[in-house]
Write a structure and sequence with these properties.
two-stranded parallel sheet, alpha+beta
Length: 101
């Protein structure tokens, strides 16, 4: 392990460290319509945008925010944005009916 490296202790710590990886590939998704790639810079920028939007909507620290979405890069981005806002991620199964949510 490289000197000076320490593992993040929380998911919020991980979210804060993403930008340090710059142009390196963060996500690659193979989708029916083709592949999608995102760098750490892009992931961080999109997650920060979601985080700011949540704060502007009045989401408070520790408040649960649900994600109802298929397993795609947008899900990861939303999850990180929620964490950056200080909120709690509440993943919900996309196959659940409205009544089950």
């Amino acid at each position: 392990m490289a000197s000076g490296f320490s593992f993040p202790r929380t998911l919020q710590d991980l979210a804060r460290r993403l930008s340090g990886f710059g142009k390196a590939t963060a996500l690659i998704a193979i989708l029916p319509e083709g592949s999608e790639m995102m760098t750490f810079d892009e992931l961080t920028e999109r997650a920060h945008s979601i985080s700011e939007h949540l704060r502007q909507q009045g989401v408070r620290r520790g408040e649960p925010v649900g994600i109802v979405a298929p397993n795609r890069p947008a899900w990861v981005t939303a999850c990180l944005g929620i964490l950056m806002a200080g909120a709690a991620v509440m993943p919900l199964d996309v196959r659940q009916s409205e009544a089950e949510r």
